[in-house]
Amino acid sequence: MNLAVQLGPLRLQNPVTVASGTFGYGVEYARLLDLNQLGAVTVKGICLKPVRGNPTPRTAEVASGLLNAIGLQGPGVDGFLRQYWPFLRQLRVPTIINIWGTTIEEYAEVARRFDEVEGVGALELNVSCPNIKEGGAQFGTDCRLLGRVVAACRRVTRLPLITKLSPNVTSIVPYARVAAEEGSDALSIMNSYPALAIDIETRRPRLGNGVGGLTGPCIKPIAVKLVYDAACTVRIPIIGMGGIQNAADAIEFLLAGATAVAVGTANFYAPRTALEVLEGLQAYMHRHGVADVRDLIGRVEMPGKFENGSALGEGSVRGASGLGPSADTRGGNLLGSSMPSGATSG
Amino acid sequence: MLAQPMKDESAEIIVNRPEVGLYHLLMLRAPGIAPLVAPGQFVHLRIWPCADALLRRPFSVYRVEGDCLSILYKVVGKGTAALARMPPGEHVAALGPLGHGFSLPCAGGGMPILVAGGYGVAALYLLAERSPVRGILFQGGRRKEDILCEPDFRALGWEVRVATEDGSWGTRGLVTDLLREELRSGGRGAKLYACGPTGMLRAVAQLAEEYGLPAELSLDERMCCGMGVCLTCVVPVRTDTGWEYQRACTEGPVFDARQLLWEVPS
Fold first, then answer.
1. Beta bridge partners of A42
2. For residue A128, what pLDDT is reported?
3. Residue B2 lies in a domain
4. Among residues of chain B, what percentage have pLDDT more than 90?
5. Contact at CB, A59 and B56, closer than 8 angstroms
6. Which of A227, A301, B126, B180 is the most exposed, having the fewest neighbouring CB atoms within 10 Å of its CB?
7. Is A216 an interface residue toward B (CB < 8 Å)?
8. Model pLDDT, residue A132
9. Same domain, B214 and B113
10. Statement to judge: residues B212 and B108 lie in one domain
11. Catalytic: A143?
């Protein structure tokens, strides 16, 4: 049974990772599960300098979901490299480092800093965090800016680049397209959805920041649709995420066109979810006689044609042709001998 | 880097019964967690029958007996309401032990003073039990029904002084008024340990400063993951260079009173 997938030049031993911001820096969860069983570890967003984050309360539980406005609290590049990288780099699975900035130059500078670090699996560009005043979502909801951020990072690093898209757009299609055109190796879909919860007794927002981002099971169908839309448009692989609680949720994303999946909010209440997804995925493949997980990618059978006119089978065609290990020659050529050790292990 | 051990296990409910008023006692068989619990630590429970309460709920460990641990909880929302309906024999997912707890008083050291507000007293029981030195528990609540476990502490050899706001048990007034009297009269107390509502904790911190006593305070913050990842439960803490947010679930819930800022500096 093959579980390995390619995210551009980055090979994952299986398609299950975790969503940035829900897994700390990996080390916290190492007490409960073997991180080397994951496809990759994805860490919380890092920018140049340490960030204090938003005032409390920072999260609010809502029906089948979680609203958050943490404000990207973090140690900055130097703090991350000092405190967390020594642990992460000795893992046998790749680390995907989520990065962000408040200007295009800052994004590029963070990308450049990590390009100098040996062993990084990939960089995930966070252009879609709704909870910081500058940067974040503004880059993810302006196609022109998005293109410039991706291009600026592409210029300074040979690491695989994953662009994490915002759901807060009329159509994700142009964003997926521009991210691919400017050199993204893969897409992450989706970030949290902007949302508001109000305490009716105090008439104040339930978050210190006012508004926040909605995650958890309640956003899953939205995320599956966005993955499907993007998969019909671009040929680069997609990491699907949004409300995954179990293998069935994850398989929906794969069928919609995702090459890999990330477990997010569930890590907060069921820390073993990612490994349970992996076990459940294997059981599903066994039950359905699927020998290669890549044969699930994009295999939803949609009635009629897509809104953008693509043929019904395109998702499947893409799944079969665009994702094999040899499909992305650019990544292979570029990385050559500098391929991070974590990225090639299986 | 790897912090203290913790376990995620399915814990069987042994006892789940109302104590007094809205307070309930829950005893769980949690063989992976119970033996590891230190005073002031907590467990994070996932209450399965409540489908739209996604998150776990944090509870201070009250007692430990062999493979079992107990918590005292108050029904305050949908999660705890669902928990109160669960019969013995059912299971909850339990993660723990979590957090940085109280430091144990030294044998031969000064007398410890415990200060509890409402069911905050639960977080102090293990400390009282395992402390090599006995001392005084100051216990407060709105009314008599909020004074829990008083006989348990007496049975351990602790003196207990009670204040209720309505005067229905012990002295009428705030528990911190009782504490102030004790400190003013030059009592033998050497260190304060407190758990209760934020207002009470702030008053204890102020008294500690006034009388030059060290104090360890257990904060009751809103939590989400409980294991240091989500950064929900942060509180502003003084540092050498200014201040930073620290996690009540990891650096806390017990903090040195002198570290705590209470408000975010403007």
1. A96
2. 75
3. no
4. 87
5. no
6. A301
7. yes
8. 60
9. yes
10. yes
11. no
Q: What is the pLDDT of residues A68-83, one digit of tens each?
A: 999 999 999 999 999 9
Q: pLDDT, tens digit, for every residue of A276-298? A: 999 999 999 999 999 999 999 99
Asked if residue A309 has pLDDT above 70, the reply is no
Q: Which residue of B has its CA nearest to A72?
A: B231
Q: Which among B98, B119, B153 is the end of a domain?
A: B98
Q: Are residues B266 and B171 in the same domain?
A: no
Query: Which domain covers residue B243, as residue numbers?
Result: 221-266
Is the minimum CB–CB distance between B36 and chain A shorter than 8 Å? Answer: no
Are B207 and B112 in a shared domain? yes
Q: Which domain holds residue A67?
A: 5-337
In this complex, is the C-beta atom of B3 within 8 Å of any C-beta atom belonging to chain A?
Answer: yes
Query: Which ipTM value was assigned to this complex?
Result: 0.91
The reply to whether residue A23 touches residue B234, judged by beta carbons under 8 angstroms, is no
Is residue A180 included in any domain, yes or no? yes
Q: What's the structural domain count of chain B?
A: 3
Is A128 a domain residue?
yes
B261 within some domain: yes
Question: In this structure, what CATH number is given to the domain that contains residue A195?
Answer: 3.20.20.70
Report how many domains make up chain A: 1
In tens, the pLDDT along A220-278 reads 999 999 999 999 999 999 999 999 999 999 999 999 999 999 999 999 999 999 999 99
The chain-wide mean pLDDT, for chain B, equals 94
DSSP character string of chain B:
---S--EEEEEEEEEEEEEETTEEEEEEE-TTTGGG--TT-EEEEE-TT-TT--S-EEEE--EEETTEEEEEEE--SHHHHHHHTPPTT-EEEEEEEESB-PPPPPTTSPEEEEEEEGGGGHHHHHHHHH-SS--EEEEEESSGGG--SHHHHHHTT-EEEEEETTSSSSEES-HHHHHHHHHHTT--EEEEEEES-HHHHHHHHHHHHHTT--EEEE-----SSSSSSS--SEEEEEETTEEEEEETTTT-BEEEGGGB-SS---
Q: Which pLDDT tens digit goes with each residue over B164-198?
A: 999 999 999 999 999 999 999 987 888 999 999 99
Say if the Cβ atoms of B230 and A70 lie within 8 Å.
Answer: yes
Q: Is 80 exceeded by the pLDDT of residue A203?
A: yes
CATH code where residue B31 lies: 2.40.30.10
- The residue of B43, B232, B247, B262 whose CB has the most chain A CBs within 10 angstroms, and thus the best one to mutate to test that interface, is B232
Q: Is residue B1 part of a domain?
A: no
Kindly indicate the confidence band of residue A337, based on its pLDDT and cuts at 50, 70 and 90: very low
